[in-house]
Design a protein that fits this description.
By secondary structure, this protein is mainly beta. The chain has one domain. A two-stranded antiparallel ribbon has the order 1-2. Strand 1 and strand 2 form a beta hairpin. The two termini are about 30 Å apart. Zinc ion binds next to loops. The site of zinc ion has 8 residues, from loops.
Length: about 55
């Protein structure tokens, strides 16, 4: 009997499994990027695992 591999939890793609995403902070009408802000990934809600549908 072949050992059945348990499927590893899929890593969330937008945050690469970290649960956090960095997004550019843009200001002004010219949309100048002043830096990056780290925020909770809204795709996995910070778990780092891709939500299973
Ligand atoms: Zn995520």
């Amino acid at each position: 009997m072949a050992a059945k591999k348990a499927p590893a939890a899929k890593k969330c793609r937008p945050c690469k499994g970290t649960g956090e995403v960095s997004r550019p902070v843009v200001v002004g009408r010219k949309r100048r990027t002043v830096g990056h802000q780290t925020g909770m990934c809204l795709n996995c809600f910070g778990t780092g695992q891709a939500p299973t549908a």
